[in-house]
Design goal:
5-stranded mixed sheet, 5 helices
């Protein structure tokens, strides 16, 4: 089995579906180092009554605990939605090597706000974008109905 970006994004989408099942905005994240998953997370803002409990923030904390350090050197974060500016700030401080996201967020994503990540962090968007976008759009359509 090839463990490429699509493989790890599928796992992040599984996390997003867990969030949806719990009534959370369906965003999921996975942190990988050397082809090994060291953290899985999804949004917990409703359950924890905490606006900072985004999937990315949960994943950063879990990965840092796993690595026993505050920097995510050598790590890739796979997330189903482009991070917001809060999460982008945390990702920048973590010195993440690579960010891979599925769906862009033109309203609240960090790129529209002009936020830049750590200079060594590479960014790739659009991996499994259609699947992630459908999950988010379906969730909010149900909320509005």
């Amino acid at each position: 089995m090839e463990m490429d970006d699509a493989y790890f994004m599928k796992l992040a989408l599984q996390e997003a579906k867990k969030a949806e099942a719990e009534g959370e905005v369906p965003v999921g994240a996975v942190v990988v180092v050397n082809q090994r998953i060291i953290a899985r997370a999804h949004n917990l803002t409703e359950r924890l009554h905490d606006v900072t409990a985004h999937a990315e923030m949960q994943a950063i904390t879990a990965a840092a605990n796993f690595l026993n350090g505050k920097y995510l050197l050598g790590c890739t974060l796979y997330v189903t939605l482009e991070p917001c500016i809060m999460c982008a700030g945390a990702l920048s401080w973590s010195q993440l090597d690579r960010l891979v996201y599925a769906s862009p967020d033109p309203k609240r994503g960090f790129q529209q706000a002009g936020v830049v990540l750590h200079p060594k962090t590479t960014i790739q968007g659009g991996v499994m974008e259609a699947e992630a976008r459908e999950l988010i759009q379906s969730f909010f359509a149900k909320k509005r109905a």
